Amino acid sequence: MARVLIFAKGGKALDPARYRTPDDRIVETRFPEHVARQWFAPGGIDRAFALLTDRAEEAWGELLQTAWPDTVKPDPVRIPETATEEDLWTIFQTIGDCVSAGDEVVLDITNGFRSIPLVAMLAVTYIRVVKRARLMGLG
């Protein structure tokens, strides 16, 4: 069993914004999913997966490796840009591949592109039943 953070990034790098942490501090970051991780998995995570389209990889790829504020760096996971039915099923399956049986999942949908946050939520809902994963939090 692992604690897993899954999040999607849009095709444009964001400027830092202010977020409140669980201990009532205000932090300025361009990674809202890191704040979600602090809320729902304060003891840390074992794995992180960044769902990235080609454009999101261009905007975020280097930042995720150099500026990510957590010790566990996210693995980039490629997903399709378009939203055909086949692409949505590919995204659904890709998210399923990120989670193992019994994992605890933090899902952040703050910065997802188009319908990706909805597909991610549906995938995690399915994974909860099929792989007996636990949703620790939705950010």
Tell me what you see in this structure.
This protein has 139 residues and is an alpha/beta fold. α3 packs across α4. β6, α4 and β7 form a beta-alpha-beta unit. It is built from 4 helices and 7 strands, in the order βββαβαβαβαβ.
Brief synopsis:
With 139 residues, the protein is an alpha/beta fold. The chain has helices at residues 32-40, 54-66, 85-98, 116-130; strands spanning 3-8, 17-20, 26-29, 47-52, 75-78, 104-108, 134-138.
Topology:
Blueprint: E1 3-8, E2 17-20, E3 26-29, H1 32-40, E4 47-52, H2 54-66, E5 75-78, H3 85-98, E6 104-108, H4 116-130, E7 134-138
Parallel strand pairs: 1-4, 1-6, 4-5, 6-7
Antiparallel strand pairs: 2-3
Helix pairs in contact: 3-4
Question: What is the percent of helical residues?
Answer: 25-40%
Radius of gyration: 14 Å
Q: Classify the beta-strand content into a percent band.
A: 15-25%
Mean pLDDT, to the nearest integer, reads 87
Strand order of the largest sheet: 5-4-1-6-7
Q: Rough shape?
A: globular
List the secondary-structure elements in sequence, H or E.
Answer: EEEHEHEHEHE
Which class of secondary structure composition applies to the elements? alpha/beta
Number of helices: 4
- Total strands: 7
Low-confidence stretches: none
Q: Distance N terminus to C terminus?
A: 21 Å
Main sheet properties? 5 strands, parallel
